[in-house]
Automatic annotation (TrEMBL):
Its main location: membrane. The chain crosses the membrane at residues 12-35, 287-310. It comes from the Bacteria. InterPro entries: Bact_2-comp_sensor_kinase, HAMP_dom, HATPase_C_sf, HATPase_dom, Sig_transdc_His_kin_internal. This is HAMP domain-containing protein. SMART domains: HAMP. It comes from Paenibacillus anseongense. It holds the Pfam family HAMP. Keywords: ATP-binding, Cell membrane, Kinase, Membrane, Nucleotide-binding, Phosphoprotein, Transferase, Transmembrane, Transmembrane helix, Two-component regulatory system. PANTHER family: SENSOR HISTIDINE KINASE YPDA, SENSOR PROTEIN KINASE HPTS. It is found in: Cell membrane. It is a multi-pass membrane protein.
Amino acid sequence: MKLQAAGRSRWLVYQKIVIVFIVLLIPLVVMNIGVNYKGLAFVKEEISESAVAGASFYSKQIDNELYFIRNQQLLFMNNRDLQKLSFVGGTIENFEEVQLIDQVKDSLLTLQSSSDYVVDAGVYIKSVGKIISMMNGVESTPNETFRMISTLMETTPKPSFYRLGDRMLFIESENNSGIMSYIEISKSKLLAALNQIAALYQKSAVLLGDEKLGSILSTAKDTDVIPTVLSLVEEQSERNTNKPIIQKINGTSYFITHSQVSSLNLSLVMYVNQNELTSKLNQFTTWFYAIFAITITVLLLYSFSIHFMIHKPLSKLTKAFQMIETDNLNLSIESKRKDEFHYLFNSFNRMANRLKRSIEENYEQKIALQHSELKQLQSQINPHFLYNSFFNIYMMCKTGDSDTAAELSQKLGSYYQYITRSGSDEVPLFKEYRHALDYCEIQCIRFSNRIRYEYVEMTHPVQSVLVPRLIIQPIVENVFEHAFEDGTTQGIVYLYVDYREQGIRVTVEDNGKSLTDEKLEQLRTKLASSAEQKEKTGMTNVNVRLQLKYGAGSGVFVSRSQHGGLRVDLIINFIKER
C-alpha cells in the first residue's frame, strides 16, 4: 500500500488548534463561572448573617426588657415602706398602716409603669394579712391570688419564671415568705414582639420555648414542625454553639437560628423557609447551571476537535511504532490530510523500509553472535566447582549432616539444569534472579557459612520481563572467586534489583578487602574493550550480550561498593540510546 502524493494545506495544525481554542475560550471568559459562583456564595452568606443578626437583635431587646423588670422587682423588695410594713404591720395604728399601704401601692404603680410588658404587679404582706395589687387593689387573705402564689412558690427547683395556664409571672419572696412579690408578664405584648421579629420574612415563624417546656409562645400557624425545631436547637445548645441550622422537616428545608433569652432561661427561635431566603438568588443559580452546561458542551467540542486533528493521527503513528516493536515491518501509513502528519507518516514509511533492509542484513549475524556468546559462557563452567560440590556432599554424608547434603544436592541439580538447558535464550527476570540466589546458597554451604549473602525480593510486575539467560550468575561467581580470595571470614554478597522508568538495574556488591583502585581501573578498561577481546571472561561476556541486545546504554558497569568491595551494575535499558 502506497502513500498519496505529499502536499501542504492552507492552515497548519497548530494554527487550527489556536483558532479553535480562541473561539471556544471567549464565552468561557465572558461568563466567568468562577466569579459568579463565589458571588453567589457570598450573597447567600450575607443573607444568612442578616437573618441571624435581626433575630439576635430583637431577642436581646426582649431579654434586656425582662431583665429590667426583674431588677425593678428586686429593688421593690428592698423598699423601705414595704420592709417597715412587713415588720411592724399589725402592731401600729390603722392610720399609719393605711399610710404605709398607700406608699407601697405607689411603688407598685411605678413598677407597673416601668415596662409595657407588665400586666399586673402585686405583693403579699404576711404581717397585715393582705395582698396589694394594681389590678385588684388591697385584698385580705386567704383569697384566690394568695392561693395561686402559694401554690406556685412550692415548685422545686425554683424556676426562672412561673406559669399558670396562659399566665407568666415573676415571683420573689423575702423574710421567710413574709413578703411575696409577683409581676405578671403580658403574653400579648411578648407575642407582639415575636410577630415583629417574624415580620422580617413572610414565610417565617418565631417561638419562645425549649425542648422540655415546649413552645411557650409562638407565631406559627403550623405547629407540627415546632418539636423538631426545638430538638435541633437543644442539640446545638448542648454543643455550645449558636450557628444557624439548615434542616429539611416534613419535606421543607428550613433555616433555623436561635438566641438565648437568659431572663426566662428559654430560647428564642426563628425558622424561615429557606426558599424565601434564596428566592432572589434563583436566577443566579439558573445562570450557573446554564454556564455549566455550556462549559461541558465547549469541552466536548474542544476534545472532539483535538481528537480529530491530533489524537487520531498520533494514535495511528503510535500503533505503527508498536507494530514495528513486534518486528512487523510490512506496513505503511496512508494519510488523506495534507498537513504535518502527512510528512511524518511519509518519513515513517521510509524509515520502516530502511529498517527492514538493515535487519535483513544484520539480524541473522547478530542472532548467531548472541548464540555463540551464550555457548561460550556455558562452556566456561568451572569443573572444579562441580567437583568441590560433590566433595562437600560426600563430607556431609560422612558426618551425618543429611539435611544439608540433601539441600545442597537439590540446589546443585537445579543449578546445572538451568545452565545446561538448550531451550530459549531468554527467561523471565525472576527466574534468572532465583538462579543467582541458588548459586549463592550453594557457595555459602560450600564455604561452611564463612560467606553469606543478603538480597531483596522482587515484587514489581517487571519481574516477568524476559531477559537473556546467565547474566546475573556469572557476576556473582566473579565475587566468590576474587572478592574473598584473601580468606575473609565474614564475607557478604548483596543482591537487589531497581526499577527505573527506562529499564532495570541489577546490582551485585560485596564487602571484600582485596579490591584496589588499580584493579578497579583495569576492570573498567577491560569492560570498555570487551567487544574487541577474542577470549572473554564471564563478566565481559555478559557485557557484550547486553550491549548487543539492548544497545550501548546497557551493559555491565563497575564501581567501588559502599561496603568496601566491588559493585557491579547490570543495566538493561528498554529504550536504546541513540
